[in-house]
Every structure is written in structure tokens, then in C-alpha cells.
Design a protein that fits this description.
With about 550 residues, the protein is of the alpha+beta class. It folds into two domains: about 375 residues, no CATH class; about 80 residues, Golgi alpha-mannosidase II (Immunoglobulin-like, Sandwich). It is built from 21 helices and eight strands. Strands 2-3-8-5-6 form a five-stranded antiparallel sheet, with no helix packed on it. A three-stranded antiparallel sheet has the order 1-4-7, with no helix packed on it. A hairpin with a 2-residue loop joins strand 5 and strand 6. The two termini are about 20 Å apart.
Length: about 550
């Protein structure tokens, strides 16, 4: 027992020490500019507001888009912001909560990569080398200090954790492992849509091959865990997929994919910048010298085994390395222009506009393969040297442009849509808001007055005193789920106005009007599916505890 405690303490210290030089800028007061980092703070503030309004699950933002609202969390990945709300409830500010999540993603990814590589290659040195290369990967610095992508940064924690749990499941299936994989799959789906699309086919294929090689009986438990993960996340994923035709993203892509393919010099040569990729000062597409060397050495080594030593090539670890190398070659191919036909024709992949996002999966695979090299081919000294090279070359990129301190109030009062091209705007909005409304509720036809207006992210109420039949405009953009009741009678909502806001007819005299944002049939089905999956998960946990007790 004491030995296990010591090991866990040692590994925790190692993960923190490896990560600390990279995340030191996050300990500076205030914040720093990135492409999406400040939007993450704004979204966290909105998530906090929606949960405070008891909008569960959060879907519709009332405060953003100049107060006209839009269905932010019906489409934007919510899991990082659930974690952020938990930190906020512990007493941290909105900015600090986001910074903590970014910073924590680095040591946690090192921690789980160590376990995964150590388990896969049966070598502690393999775990250490893989963890260092995984953390000191140039694209990780891009996410932390240039793009500010909180979803991608947290995804890097889940990749090795999912591999670790699946390898354990194949070795010895258990209810607890099925439930754990299900939770992590759900977390990945709700953490970053694009990374899920890129990672899950690799994950399923790799584990299926592993199961066929080692334990075919585990295939059933593995697929059960995958289905459980999709069920747990259904409340988010199903509406995001099947309601996409309601928003502008269904009509126009947010970017021209052809502008963002990588060329060979960008892939190989070191460079750094803080702008968007098509700018002269655009961020780096580089793989990194150490990671490039690992990729070249692994390919040459496998070719040697295949040509000169066919007997050893059939050995389990070499076959495993071969599968990972082929996968790495595929993701490398996706970065370049010749892969365009795949991006255009493969379902879900065709929804991704930035080919360079494949760098994230490629970094994971190469870091894992580095563990194989440390055990099978090169030996400890060469791989330690490559680890040092990675640290020396990548650490200088862990820096900000400058710092500022705008305070939490700046973000929680921000009117932005937190999107680059208004892609989450309902497509019936022809005239996009450019400033806040003067009145939340106003009379547009007829005569009368409106009093006692009260509103939040899921409910709007007011009293209307009309001298004749009157039309009232509520300056909130309509989205399916909004329902209106006038004097306890359901009323039709007209949203044909240029701004896509809701207009309601009220009769002569006094009227009590209430609008509520409710779940549609599809969303209700998705909610029930997630609730049923939670019950199934609890059932598995109960069974696991009983078996352990016995």
C-alpha cells in the first residue's frame, strides 16, 4: 500500500514538474490575448447565468447577441463550461476558472499519457518519454497561447485516458471499466466536436484490433461502453446534429478549407506567430523536430523489421507499432492538399473546415510511438535525448504576447455572439443585431401599454393593457422551443420579422403573457436517452460494487 502511494505521489510530482515551465504564464495576474480564449470566459459567464435560471440542460443564451439571444449551447460544446461553473462555485472568478482549466490540461495529459504508454509498452521509460513528448508538442503551445481553444486543450487529457481504460478493459473486462469508458466518451463528445470526429474512428479501430489480438470476448463490453458514452451525451449531440439545419452553419461554411491545408515547409520548418494561419504572422503548423525524428525513425525501423527480420515483425509490440504508424501516416496525409477528396466526401469529416486540426491526433500518436522506440529500438539514451530536444525547442513558444486585466465584469456584460462568422445564428434572422434593444417588449401594431416585464434565459413574462387587438414584439430571437401563452391560452409566435424576433397578438383589455423555452420532441427524446444512460451507469456501478464486496 505504501509503495502504491509513493508511486502516485512520484507520478503526480513528475507530471507537475514537466508541465510547470509551460503553464507558468497562466499564473500571471490578468489574462492575455488569444483567438478564442476571451470568448471562453464570456461563454462561461453565460453558462453560469443559464444554470442559475435553472435552464437544464443549458441551450439558449438570453444575454449574448446584444441581448437578442441565440441557441449557443445547443451547438457549442458545453463540458468545459460545466467544469468552469464548478470552479466558479468553489470561489474562483470567471477568468481564473478558465485559466485553471487550460493550465490543468497540461499536467493531466502528461499524467494519463504516462500510464497509457507504460501499460501499452510495459516500460516505465516508455511512459516518461511519451509524456514529455506529448506535453512538448508545438501544437499544444498553439492551443494554449495562440488559439486559446479550451475544448481542444481538454481533449488532450481524454485521448490517453480513453486508450488506457480500453487497454485495461481488454485485459480484464469489468462493469467499472465499461462505465468509465462511457463517461470519458461522453466527456469527449461534449468537450470538442471536431476532435471527437477525428479521434473516435481511430479509437474504435485500434481497440478492435487489440481485442482481436488479445481477447475477443471484450469486444461486446467495449461497444457497450461506446454506446453508453453516446447515450450519456445524447442530450447535447442529437440536437446539435439534427437541428443544424436551423442555423447559418447549414448554409455556409465558417471558412474555406482550401486556404488551410498545410504545405511541406510549414510542416517541417520551425516558425511561430500569433495571427490566423493565412496571415504573414500566422500560427505554426510545424510538427516539431523531435516528433519528426520519431516519425522518421519509426517508419525506418518498421521497414527494417518487415524486410530483414520478418519473424520479429510478427511480434506483438511491432505489429502494434505498425498499426499506430499507419494511423499516423493517415493523419499526416489529412494535413495536405491531396487529401481534399476525403474531407469533401467522408460524412462528418466534410463538416470540418480546418485540416490542420489533425495535428492534435498526430501529436498523440507520435508521442505514443516514442514509447515503443524507447523500449524496442533505440534504447533509453537516444529517446531521452529526443525528449530534451523537444523541451529545448518547444519551451520558448510557451509565452504570451502581453497581459491585460479587464476583470470579470467586462466578460459577463459582453454582448458578443462568441462565434467567428455568426454561424450559430438561426437562419431566419435576416438583419443581425448591432446594438441592444431599447425595450425588451414593445407594441408594434395597435394601441396600449406593457408593464411588469420580467425575463431570463428561459422565461419572459409581462402584462399588456390593449385598447384594441394589438401586436406585441418581444426582442428575443425565436428558436424552436419557445412557446407563448396569453391568458392561459397557447398563442402563435410570428418570427417573420427581419430580426427573427418573436411577435405575439394580444386581445383588447388586460392580458397576462408568458413565454417559456421548453424542450422540443427531439430534445426531450435526447434528454430521456441521457437520463436512461445515467440510470444504466448507476446500475453498472452498483453491480461492480456488489461483485467487489463478494
Amino acid at each position: 500500500m505504501r509503495r502504491k502511494v509513493f508511486f502516485w505521489m512520484w507520478l503526480s510530482i513528475f507530471s507537475i514538474v514537466v508541465a510547470l515551465p509551460i503553464i507558468l504564464p497562466y499564473f500571471h495576474s490578468g489574462y492575455f490575448p488569444t483567438h478564442d480564449g476571451e470568448w471562453a470566459v464570456v461563454r462561461l459567464g453565460e453558462m453560469f447565468r443559464e444554470l442559475r435560471d435553472i435552464q437544464i440542460p443549458p441551450r439558449y443564451s438570453e444575454n449574448l447577441n446584444f441581448g437578442y439571444g441565440y441557441p449557443l449551447f445547443n451547438f457549442a460544446y458545453p463540458f468545459p463550461y460545466y467544469l468552469g461553473v464548478m470552479l466558479k462555485l468553489l470561489g474562483f472568478g470567471f477568468v481564473d476558472s478558465i485559466k485553471i482549466l487550460f493550465a490543468a490540461s497540461v499536467p493531466l495529459s502528461a499524467f494519463f499519457m504516462f500510464f497509457t504508454s507504460r501499460l501499452l509498452w510495459r516500460s516505465t521509460l516508455a511512459g516518461l518519454v511519451s509524456a514529455i513528448l506529448y506535453v512538448y508538442f508545438p501544437y499544444r503551445m498553439v492551443d494554449l497561447y495562440v488559439r486559446g481553444s479550451i475544448g481542444e486543450s481538454l481533449s488532450f487529457v481524454l485521448f490517453p485516458l480513453l486508450f488506457y481504460l480500453a487497454i485495461k478493459l481488454i485485459s480484464k473486462p469489468s462493469f467499472l471499466l465499461v462505465g468509465s469508458i462511457g463517461i470519458c466518451v461522453a466527456a469527449l463528445i461534449m468537450t470538442h466536436n471536431i476532435m471527437t470526429v477525428l479521434f473516435m474512428p481511430l479509437y474504435i479501430l485500434f481497440i478492435l484490433i487489440q481485442a482481436l489480438l488479445k481477447n475477443k470476448k471484450a469486444i461486446k463490453e467495449f461497444f457497450l461502453s461506446i454506446f453508453l458514452g453516446f447515450g450519456l451525451s445524447a442530450f447535447f449531440s442529437l440536437p446539435a446534429i439534427f437541428e443544424k439545419n436551423n442555423i447559418l452553419l447549414s448554409q455556409i461554411p465558417i471558412a474555406d478549407r482550401n486556404l488551410y491545408f498545410v504545405n511541406l515547409s510549414q510542416f517541417i520548418l520551425p516558425r511561430w506567430g500569433y495571427g490566423v494561419p493565412i496571415d504573414p504572422n500566422g500560427f505554426s503548423y510545424q510538427l516539431g523536430l523531435a516528433h519528426l525524428m520519431v516519425l522518421i525513425i519509426i517508419v525506418l525501423s518498421l521497414l527494417f523489421f518487415l524486410i530483414k527480420d520478418k519473424k520479429n515483425f510478427k511480434e506483438y509490440y511491432i505489429r502494434l507499432a505498425g498499426i499506430l504508424t499507419i494511423s499516423a501516416a493517415f493523419f499526416t496525409f489529412l494535413l495536405f492538399k491531396p487529401s481534399e477528396f476525403l474531407w469533401e466526401n467522408i460524412p462528418l469529416l466534410s463538416e470540418i473546415n480546418y485540416p490542420w486540426t489533425a495535428l492534435g491526433i498526430l501529436g498523440f500518436l507520435i508521442s505514443l510511438l516514442a514509447g515503443f522506440l524507447s523500449k524496442q529500438v533505440l534504447g533509453r539514451f537516444v529517446m531521452i535525448f529526443l525528449g530534451i530536444i523537444a523541451v529545448v525547442l518547444v519551451l520558448p513558444y510557451a509565452k504570451t504576447q502581453y497581459y491585460f486585466d479587464k476583470g470579470d465584469d467586462y466578460y459577463i456584460t459582453n454582448d458578443a455572439t462568441t462565434t467567428s462568422s455568426n454561424e450559430l445564428m438561426p437562419k431566419w434572422v435576416k438583419e443581425k443585431p448591432i446594438e441592444r434593444f431599447k425595450e425588451k417588449v414593445e407594441i408594434v401594431e395597435g394601441a396600449g401599454k406593457v408593464d411588469n416585464v420580467s425575463y431570463n434565459s428561459k422565461r419572459i413574462t409581462f402584462d399588456a393593457l390593449a385598447q384594441k387587438n394589438t401586436e406585441v414584439r418581444v426582442n428575443t430571437i425565436y428558436y424552436p422551443g419557445w412557446n407563448a401563452v396569453v391568458n392561459n391560452q397557447k398563442s402563435e409566435i410570428d418570427y417573420s420579422h427581419e430580426k427573427g424576433v418573436m411577435e405575439i397578438k394580444v386581445p383588447k383589455g388586460k392580458s397576462k403573457v408568458e413565454l417559456k423555452f421548453l424542450e422540443t420532441h427531439l430534445r426531450l427524446f435526447a434528454d430521456i436517452l441521457s437520463a436512461a444512460s445515467i440510470l444504466l451507469l448507476l446500475f453498472y456501478v452498483s453491480i461492480s460494487r456488489r461483485l467487489k464486496f463478494r
